[in-house]
Design goal:
Layout: E1 3-7, H1 12-24, E2 28-33, E3 52-56, H2 62-72, E4 76-79, H3 86-91, H4 94-116, H5 120-125, E5 127-133, H6 158-177, E6 181-186, E7 188-190, H7 199-209, E8 213-216, E9 222-227, H8 228-241, E10 247-250, E11 255-257, H9 258-272, E12 283-286, H10 301-307, H11 315-328, H12 330-337, H13 340-343, E13 351-352
Parallel strand pairs: 1-2, 1-4, 2-3, 3-13, 4-5, 5-6, 6-10, 7-9, 8-12
Antiparallel strand pairs: 9-11
Length: 364
């Protein structure tokens, strides 16, 4: 058994990864999360407290990060924590620069000091996994091949630019200092526990509520959709067998348009909960957002060939599973809608850290 320090583990992908680790391995997790608006301690509240500890704190707080490393002696750091919503990055990029760039530098600095003090055997086994996004690569034309690990970075939003900068820092700490960093770049995730500002949960909840389903532009933006549990399995493989200094792209082999996703959601809800009219009639087209990338697609050949990973859930299966989870867990997202989840956070096991400063975000 060993301990993993996970940052952003009360957010969407982070919480799913923490649950995956606790439920499928013997590892323990120290879960550092600032518990900002997109984090929800309820997502991990039922986990074994002997193996999972949720600490409320900021990844920019070097003293806190250093203290957690010294106390818990983790074998790995898996870094999810990030401000991640593109629309919010357009309205207020400063928070994205602070968390995604400065926060990543703080983690890298503290990890390096910790790693340098380890004995040779512990040094060899230690890993720092930096979890990033396909958005750092920019946008693809309709006939261009999918992003592979050699694709040139060309971020188009403040969010993507901040993640690209963090990727470069992670690479530099490996090349300059030898810190055993591995970078992963994933496609659009979906599944349980996703904060309802993102496309699938937002449209699902709006559809259930009889509200409009706002689709940007013509809805023909294409994304590769990755079921979150498949992403967690991929990170587990990278952690176990990935090569330090390597980049691994993780995709779901499920490229489709935003409009198709929304229509499929409407049809699934009509099938499970028929209403007075087809839910597709709730779709409304709205002005496209600035700098909206037209197409992302991931070439995941490297992780498939080198580490033996492949997605197990196709998009139709994953979307059905996602719809069923949200229908069966209404209390989870209803508490987000009415704000109760913020009031309940300390009662669900987050331990405040006295040295924490301003909060950071958690990834979706």
């Amino acid at each position: 058994m060993s301990t993993i320090l996970v940052t952003g583990g009360a957010g969407f992908i982070g919480a799913n990864f923490v649950r995956h680790v606790i439920e499928t391995t013997e590892h323990s997790v120290i879960n550092l999360d600032a518990i900002t608006y997109a984090a929800n301690p309820a997502s991990v509240a039922d986990l074994d407290p002997d193996r999972h500890q949720l600490v409320e704190g900021d990844i920019c707080d070097a003293a806190l990060v250093g203290a957690l490393l010294a106390k818990h002696r983790p074998q790995a750091i898996v870094h999810f924590a990030a401000e991640s919503h593109v629309d919010r990055s357009i309205d207020g990029p400063g928070a994205f620069i602070r968390t995604n760039i400065n926060g990543t530098q703080t983690l890298l600095d503290q990890a390096l000091a910790y790693w340098r003090a380890l004995d040779d055997q512990a040094k060899d086994s230690f890993r720092f996994i930096h979890v990033s996004t396909d958005e750092v690569y920019g946008t693809l034309k309709p006939d261009e091949p999918a992003f592979d690990e050699h694709h040139q970075y060309a971020p188009n939003s403040p969010y993507a630019a901040s993640k690209a900068a963090a990727d470069h820092l992670a690479r530099a700490w490996n090349k300059t200092y030898g810190l055993p960093v591995i970078i992963t770049n994933c496609s659009n995730n979906y599944g349980p526990y996703q904060f309802p500002e993102k496309l699938i949960p937002l449209m699902l909840i709006n559809a259930l509520s009889g509200k409009p389903l706002p689709v940007y532009g013509d809805g023909q933006q294409r994304r590769d959709w990755l079921y979150v549990t498949d992403h967690c399995r991929a990170i587990e493989r990278v952690l176990a067998a990935g090569q330090p200094g390597r980049v691994y792209n993780i995709g779901g082999d499920a490229e489709t348009t935003n409009l198709t996703v929304v229509e499929a959601l409407c049809d699934l809800l009509d099938e499970r909960l028929p209403g007075d009219r087809p839910r597709r009639e709730q779709i409304e087209y709205v002005t496209d957002r600035p700098g909206h990338d037209r197409r992302y697609a991931i070439n995941a050949t490297r992780i498939k060939e080198e580490l033996g990973w492949a997605p197990e859930m196709n998009f139709e299966q994953g979307l059905r599973a996602t719809v069923d989870w949200y229908l069966n867990n209404r209390s989870w997202w209803e508490r987000i809608q009415d704000g109760r989840y913020r009031q309940e956070r300390l009662g669900l096991g987050a331990q405040p850290a006295s040295t924490a400063s301003q909060p950071t975000g958690t990834p979706s």
